[in-house]
Amino acid sequence: MFGAGGGTSSYVDAEETDLVLLWGSNAREAHPIFFHHVLKGLRRGARLWCIDPRRTSSAAWADAWLGLNVGSDIALANAVGREIIHAGLQHREFIARATEGFEAYAAAVEPYTLARAEQITGVPGHAIRELAHAYATAPTAQLCWTLGITEHHNAVDNVLALINLALLTGHVGRPGSGVAPLRGQNNVQGGGDMGAIPDRFSGFQPVADDTVRRRFEASWGVPLSTVPGRHLSRMFEAMEEGELRALYVIGENPADSEADGTRARRLLEGLDVLVVQDVMLTRTAELADVVLPAAAAWAETEGTVTNSERRVQRVRRAVSPPGAARDDLDVIVDLAGRLGADWGTVTAVSAWEELRTLSPVHAGMSYDRIEASGGLQWPCPTDDHPGSRLLHERLWCDPVEGGRAPFSPTEWVPPFDELTDDYPLRLTTGRTLDSYNTGVQTGAYDPPIRRGRALDLAPVDAARLGVAEGERVRVSSRRGSIEMTVAVRGELPEGLAFTTFHFADDADVNVLTVDAWDPKSGTSEFKATAIRVDKLTGAH
Amino acid sequence: MDLHVGPDLANDAERAAVERVIAAVGPSVVTVGERLTLGGPHRAAARRHLLLPALHALQQAAGWVSPGALNLLADALGVPPAEAYGVASFYDLFALERPANPTVVRVCDDIACRLFGTAAIDAVLTDAGLDDATRHPSPCLGVCDHGGGALVQRVGEATTCLRVAAGAATPVVEAGPLLARARGVHPTSLDAYRSTGGYGALAVAMERGADAVIEAVTASGLRGRGGAAFPTGVKWRAVADQHGRARHVVANADESEPGTFKDRTIMEEDPFALVESLTIAGFAVGAAKGWIYVRGDYPRAQDRVGAALAAARAASLLGHDVAGSGWSFDIELRSGAGAYICGEETALLNSIEGYRGEPRNKPPFPTTHGLFGLPTLVNNVETLVNVPHVLLAGPDAYRAVGTTESSGTRLFCLSGHVARPGLYELPFGVTLGALIERAGGVRDARPLQAVLLGGAAGTFVRGDRLDIELSFEGARAAGVSLGSGVVMLFDDTVDLTDTLARMARFFRDESCGQCVPCRVGTQRVVEWLQAPTADAALLDDLDAVLRDASICGLGQTATSALRSAQRAGLRIRGGAS
């Protein structure tokens, strides 16, 4: 947000807010820990609004669920913004003091009338109006989103459209008010914080910034490239172009998780060398030339994780890794040694201490302090800094400290994969409570609540296709075709189909998905695939 | 919300019953077209209070609350099915198994009625053609003045209560100001009520203002008639002082103490008095809503109060503009469903809210955290109907009646072996002997063995303690309790062990089960009374743990009558001797 890669609020802000707006997120299932905090907020009287194409189990907790068309988020957000402005509910004083670009934003959202938004999104105009008034008039509000916003070819614009609403209403940087992208694992935030982003060093410091880069060069004693690395989508492009010939994959399973999975697998197979380091023998590992068995970060290694509220917490080794599995850190240090760089003895503590000298937001976090406090939230720049519950409190200083927060006008564009008579249904994907992503960590268990691996269809679509619950059907997109089992689900509006991507062995959903991706984020449009469903004929 | 209802489905009658109850507000989840759904915990919470009325509707429609009906109801109100089952199974008047017989009769076998056997009520039931009905024994139905009664539940029909000397008005024998209308004034006529001074007190209240009303109630020395004798004005002030919060007033008409029938009599004979009094209370404390929670076994009282509410509403004495004052106030009638514990005020609040009628921990008290968590005034019916007289006569004149610490009159419920059972309104301070004298003495002029004062949770005194002064201070000095005004006589033929055993079973049956000492302890007292030899130390232990470790009065007073009988040296056989 406005340059920092983390949610502006803490979990406690979801508990102490007046309104939670869950947009493109089925947190009840995909972020159950965060959702516990939302439930505490509801118990204290907070209202919950859910914006999602599906009436999810999160929506079942909502005061109102708005079922928008897949990929129409910007139209909805802009219409909400326009309604707030037309009703005079924007936070004028905050806008004047802490933001810039309001006039251009107001002009950009002007065409998004309630009527037009209803036509694009499918949501009744009066409901959009009520959402606008509820969000704008709530004393405090949390705006939370997940992959429903970011797994689109225009993901960054989607995010900006939502941030515009927070700026418009002043719902940012105050207790109970903020914007929060929810993280799917206990350490997604930590991965980004540590520099696993193509153009950033640790602590979100730009590679292109000379001062920053020199600091890292001085510490590491080597010159560093000014050229940003490639994100995942670009790596696959580079493979296709023959430019990228060797790949070292740590804890990722792109053979199952990439959109247009047929293409992804073909490219991985075509590499000169593929090294995979993972806790399980994943589909990607099966394709590898070398597999390095890794210790599980949880319970088998020392270190830290950072959660969605930017809180750095200690994890400890409780058991020894099985067999030949080794700590990722040891594997990397040994590999560096084989490649000619002697890093000496590196431990979790020594790596952390080095980080503190290079990343200002982590500088005040010693292991002792993290342990004593039960976790510290960055930014924590000094040894006596208590950590930060909120980001961007500066916007409420008068005058504002640092730069103003910019409005970013956005325009709605439809999903890349068009609906046509040949491909008339919109397939979107998501997660369920019992499973995680491609199932590397969850597929081996058989929880009683699991129902997954089906193609969910709206009752009206199932009836039109003449298919029944439990029937096997052929599902085709412009990229591929697979067989799936039908489940008829009342929470889906007409024209929308849903499936999880947890069970690639059974239903290889990413054969269908489109790899159109956002040039700014590198994220593929998993959420919007045009498909056709055909009854199976003959012997199968 | 994560609600999972079972596969059982409701039938059409059950569906219609639930739909009628929720018609005004709609179900907890509403689908507005394919792209908009309204729901969530707040919408569900706002409907939870309809659970008890809906259970009544289902019981009446089908004769039981079937699994399918419970599923439908849980879904419609957004209540977890297990919680809905927990509530339905809490109350005696709801059946959770399909009844073998469309008519169920609950015949009172409690301590007063059992003195006279069942021949009289049997005859009434036979006359009513109810010989084939399924019969259950019932705890006190509040018709002790008649000497026998039975509650009749019939599928598809409203519940009724049959009394010995069926149709007879309550034998009101001595009437003071509170019962002035109880003999002769048409109880369902608003005109009759007004022509006898009714609604004059509300006019006075509105003219003088809320503060003046509370000051008058405080100055009158009026104290609660439900049993705790708390100064009424102090309670009203505490609720009125909760500025900036919505407030409720509640009339506790869940009269269930065995031997008590005073509130029933007021509601049946002078229902407008309760409506006017609660309206004055709402005006004084600044409430927007009032509730009258009438015990489920009082169908006639419910009918009369319901009719009075409708008439008051039609005359704009309730509603958006009460008596042309611009003040908005309305009263909702709620029926209990057969649970003595709901007379405890916080249990009553839980019951209205649609939860099991289990008492809450106190503090916080209802004055700050009552109905729906809001400041709430809860007063007994008899307490409330004193207020118009305080306002009309003035606090000094009111206070001139009674004793120093007990101002005004008191309703005494005389039953058992008394010559003329019935309701007696007399100034506080009358002696027990004088009261019995007024009632014609002991029935058949037999020797008086004992008197039970205050009900099952009260105290026994020997038949020769006729000098006790019936006032709060007199009762305190004598070590007895006035409770709800019960004065039950037992002549020398009565086996008091049987009476005590019935009381012990009553407390065991009516314990809500929340506190283990009460849930288990009340059963141990039943067993103690059945034991062939007395174990005094065991009873001491039971007594101590019940009093110390129960959160409400039920457990705390469950051994009170037994202990008082022992102290008084009354004849008790077996383990109790």
Helix content of chain B: 40-55%
pLDDT averaged over residues of chain A: 91
**Strands of the largest sheet of chain B, in order across it?**
7-13-12-16-14-15
> Globular, elongated, flat, extended or rod-shaped: what is the shape of chain A?
globular
| Gross morphology of chain B | globular
Would you tell me the structural class of the helices and strands of chain B?
alpha/beta
Strand count, sense and barrel status of the largest sheet of chain A are: 6 strands, mixed, barrel
Helix content of chain A: 25-40%
User: Number of DSSP strands of chain B?
Assistant: 16
Give the CA-CA distance, first to last residue of chain A. Answer: 51 Å
Q: Biggest interface: chains and residue counts?
A: A-B, 23 and 15 residues
Low-confidence stretches of chain B: none
* Spatial gap, N to C terminus of chain B: 57 Å
Count of individual beta strands of chain A? 21
Indicate the proportion of strand residues of chain B: 5-15%
* Adjacency order of strands in the biggest sheet of chain A: 16-20-17-19-18-21
Specify the number of helices of chain A: 21
Multimer state: heterodimer
* Strand proportion of chain A: 15-25%
Give the class of chain A from helix and strand content and strand pairing. alpha/beta
List keywords for this structure.
heterodimer, A: 540 residues, alpha/beta, six-stranded mixed barrel, 21 strands, globular, B: 577 residues, six-stranded mixed beta sheet, four-stranded mixed beta sheet, 40% helix, 14% strand
Textual characterization of the structure:
The complex is a heterodimer of chains A (540) and B (577). By secondary structure, chain A is of the alpha/beta class. Helix content of chain A is 32%, strand content 17%. Chain A has 21 helices and 21 strands. In chain A, helix 4 crosses helix 8 (125-137), helix 4 packs parallel to helix 10 (155-169) and helix 7 crosses helix 8 (125-137). Chain A is globular, with a radius of gyration of 24 Å. In chain A, 47% of the residues are buried. Chain B is an alpha/beta fold. Helix content of chain B is 40%, strand content 14%. Chain B has 23 helices and 16 strands. Chain B has helices at residues 12-22, 40-47, 51-62, 67-77, 81-88, 119-127, 190-195, 200-208, 210-220, 232-240, 262-269, 271-285, 299-314, 345-353, 381-393, 395-400, 432-438, 472-478, 496-510, 516-530, 536-549, 553-557, 560-567, and strands at residues 30-31, 36-38, 103-108, 134-138, 149-154, 160-163, 172-174, 248-253, 289-294, 330-335, 376-380, 409-416, 422-427, 448-453, 459-462, 486-491. Chain B has a 6-stranded mixed sheet, with helices on both faces. Chain B has a 4-stranded mixed sheet with strand order 4-3-5-6. In chain B, a hairpin with a 5-residue loop joins strand 12 and strand 13 (422-427). Classes of the chains: A alpha/beta (540), B alpha/beta (577). Chain A binds chain B through residues 42-43, 45, 47-48, 55, 57, 59-68, 122-124, 127, 493-494, and chain B through 1-2, 29, 32-43. Strand 3 of chain A pairs antiparallel with strand 2 of chain B.
